[in-house]
Amino acid sequence: MSPVKCAVCVVVVALLWTGILAAEDVQVSCRLQDSCVLPCTFEPGEGETIYWTQQLSVDIDVHSFYNDRDQLDNQDQRYQGRTSLYKDQISGGNASLQLTAVTFQDQGRYKCYIDTILGPTESFIQLEVQVPVGKIDIQQVGNTTTCSSKGIYPQPVLTWSTDPPHNLTKQKPTIQQDQELFSISSSLVTSLNVNKTAFSCTVTAGKSRRTATLSQQATVSEVNTDVSIPCRGSTSDLTGFRLTWSFNHRETILMHNFTETPSKVQIQEPWRQLVQNMSESGSLELQASSLQREGIYTCELSDAKQTHISNTFLKFETKQVTGEPGYLVPVIITVIVLALASLVIFIIMTKCKGKPSGGAGESTRGVGVPLSHVGNGNRRDQRLSTEENSPY
C-alpha cells in the first residue's frame, strides 16, 4: 500500500473513531406534552458509561449513567424528573432515553455518547416537537368557501382542491402565531355550482397532515313521508370513523363511533321520535311525522387523517293532485253537459208553469159566436161539425 493510501486510511479510521463521520442524525418527532423516546444502541460491553447531552451553543447535561447507576448531579434543571433509561436493557446495548412532558424547548439536536471496554461510540438525534393538525373547520356561504385550523406546530401549509378538478383562484392563507402555536385560514371564491362540486382543504404541518372535504346538495320531499338523507364520504367502509349528524349546524341529532366494538348509535332525546334508523353507509332515515323539520342536515365523518362534511338542505312540499289531459277533458265535458241539461230543464219547467191548461180551451166550444165574427177557416170548421152531427 502506498504511503498516500495508508495516510488516508488512518485519517478515515480516526474520524470514525472520534464520531466526526457519524451516520446521519436520526429524526424523531414528538407531540407536545407527550412522552418520547430518543433511540440509541451500541455494541454490548462491560463498564457502560452513558452521557446524553443537548447540542446548543453550550452542551446541556440531560442524563448521565455510570458505575451501574444514574448520575444526575449535573443534570440541567429543565430535565429534572423527566428523563429515564431502560436500565434492564443497558447490558444488551440499549441506551435509549425516555423523555416525558415534552416542551418546545426540548426540540433540537441530542448526542448519545457511550463508552465500554470495547471503546467509545456516539450517535445524534434530531428532535422535533409537533402539535398535529386537529380539527379543520370548513364551511360555505354563497360562493365563498372558508377553511381554517388552529393550535398547530410547526408552521402549517394550506392547499385547496376540488372534485371534479377545476382551476381555482387561490387566496394566500393567513397565518398567525400565539404562544408558539399557529393558526391558518383561507377563503376560496368561485362561480362553480356548489351542489355539483366537492371542495377539499388540506393542512400540513411537519409530518402531520389532515384533509377536510365539503359537499352540499338540496333535496325536496313530500310532507308526512319517510326521508333518507345520504352521508356523502369518499369511503364505503366506515370502520375507524366517527360519525355525527347535526341540524342547522347547532343541534346534534346522533353520534356513532365506528372505532368501538360493538358500535352503538346515540340518538339525542328531541330526535328519537323522528329518527327511524341509520344505514350501514351512514344515511339518516327519518320517519313520516308531523314533527319533520326543514333545514340543513349535516353529516360529519372523520378519522385521524380526514374529515368529510356533507350538507343537505331538506325542504318539504305538499303533494299536488294532478291528472293527465286525456283524463281531465271528459270529466270537464261531462260537468258542462250536466250543467247545460239542468239549465234547459229549468227553463222548460218555468215556461210550462206560465201556459193555460187544456180544459179551459174545451169549455169555449159550446159558446155561440156570431158568424160575422168568424173567418173563413172558422166557417169550414163549423160545416165539418154540422156534418159530423148529421145522422146520414
Automatic annotation (TrEMBL):
What InterPro entries has UniProt attached to this entry? BTN3A2-like_Ig-C, Ig-like_dom, Ig-like_dom_sf, Ig-like_fold, Ig_sub, Ig_V-set, T-cell_Activation_Regulation
What SMART domains does the record tag this protein with?
IG, IGv
- Describe the location of the Ig-like domain by residue ranges: 24-114, 120-221, 224-310
Q: Which Pfam families match?
A: C2-set_3, V-set
Q: Which GO terms describe its biological process?
A: cell surface receptor signaling pathway; cellular response to lipopolysaccharide; immune response; negative regulation of T cell proliferation; positive regulation of T cell proliferation; T cell costimulation
Q: What is its main location?
A: membrane
GO CC terms, sorted: external side of plasma membrane
Q: What is this protein called?
A: Ig-like domain-containing protein
